[in-house]
Amino acid sequence: MSGSKLRSRWAALAGAVAVVLLISGCGSSAMQERKPTDPVAVVSFEPGDNSGEVNPVGAVRATVERGRFDSIALTNADGKQVAGELAQDGKSWHATEALGYGRSYLWSGQATGEDGKTVPVHGQFSTLKPEKTIRATINPSDNAEVGIAMPISLKFDKPVQDKAAIQRALTVQTSVPVEGAWAWLSDRQADWRPKEYWPAHTHVSVQAKLYGQSYGDGAYGLADLSTEFDIGRAQIVKAAVGTHRMVVLRDGKQVASYAASYGEEYDPGRNTPNGTFIIMEKNPVEIMDNPRYGYHDVRKTWASRFSNHGEFIHENQENAAALGKINNSHGCINLSAADAKAYYDSALLGDPVEVTGSASTMPPHFDVYDWLLTWDQWTQKSAV
Asked: How many CB atoms lie within 10 A of CB 80?
């Protein structure tokens, strides 16, 4: 290779290096002149900013990435703060109370990023406004002591469309294992009963998380419900119509056998019908009417109702001659005054009354008819 060619190649190479150094030098200068970066902390919300129709019992939280909250608050349109909890690391906050229906909420506060720069906390959302709300009641009430056949009953002031959703919001906890199920007895009533009678002395807790639940057709639950109650001793009335006796079993042992008169056997309208019922109500004095059979304002004492069809266990001292001998009542179980009071004093609401040997059987139409259904019939009324 000649000397002139070697010199020209070195000149070309030197020129290329000069161009690279020039470009590199320009890049370094640009880096030094760049503007400051944005803060690294990023705040996000659930539900998202400007969300509408938010369910008031849904998750409500704020989080910050690459930083922590210095302060944060969620307030309604009246300026009242929503109760909440800030995580120990300061990176998240969540509401600890349900929100209201049809309300607007505002986020406020400040977060500081890992770079020491602050960002404001601001955002808003609104909750759904139901077309209507549904009120419910629950029985037994708190701290009640009830009999071994007592169902748990939820009653609603308007028909429930989405029964499955509501049933999934209901829980029953028991101190000992108990098999049971919910059944919808109407569009406005759901009952839970055990497959067999409750074990004596069971403690029962019920939670109905109804607030924020959609009932369907634009309706939502008005409030949550709960109750805790206890099952008492195991007392059962054995009412065998043909024996003219009413036998009381307590914890498996016979504790009483009362001379009784049941409903007239040859008149279906006066039968004491077959079936398993419960003591629904107790009144020291009951005023009775039956226009079909021509009596009004009849005063009877120590009355324990066991059917809304009109059957009671009660005193009928005027019928003393028939007690233990003849069935001639209008469907009630007549006892002497002393025996009626003794039974009345021993009875709990929810005690079962098992009527057998009658000429007719009670159809499952009258409240409470839970124990007139077989277990298969009962479970078929579940919505889930």
From this structure: 11
Return d(Cα 333, Cα 352) in angstroms, integer. Answer: 14
Q: With respect to residue 316, please indicate whether it lies within any of the assigned structural domains.
A: yes
Instruction: Name the catalytic one among 203, 309, 314, 365.
Output: 314
Position 380 in a domain = no
pLDDT in tens, 280-299: 999 999 998 878 777 788 89
- Tens-digit pLDDT profile for residues 219-277: 999 999 999 999 999 999 999 999 999 999 999 999 999 999 999 999 998 999 999 99
Indicate if 228 and 239 belong to the same structural domain.
no
Tell me the percentage of the chain whose pLDDT exceeds 70. Answer: 91
The residue among 287, 302, 290, 285 whose CA lies nearest residue 345 is 302
Q: Is the peptide bond before 364 cis (omega within 30 degrees of 0)?
A: no
Full residue range of the structural domain in which residue 118 is found: 42-127
Same domain, 118 and 179: no
Prediction pTM value: 0.85
* pLDDT digits 0-9 by tens, 32-52: 443 467 899 999 999 999 999
- From the candidates 122, 330, 332, 365, which is the catalytic residue? 332
Specify whether 332 is catalytic: yes
Annotated catalytic residue 94: no
2, pLDDT greater than 80:
no
Q: Render pLDDT for 173-183 as a digit per residue (tens, 0 to 9).
A: 999 999 999 99
φ and ψ at residue 47, rounded to 5 degrees: -70, 165
- Do 261 and 340 belong to one domain? yes
Among 351, 357, 353, 349, smallest CA distance to 372 is for 353
Residue 352 corresponds to which amino acid? Answer: P
The count of domains in the chain is: 3
362: tokens are 């009670």
**Does one domain contain both 182 and 139?**
yes
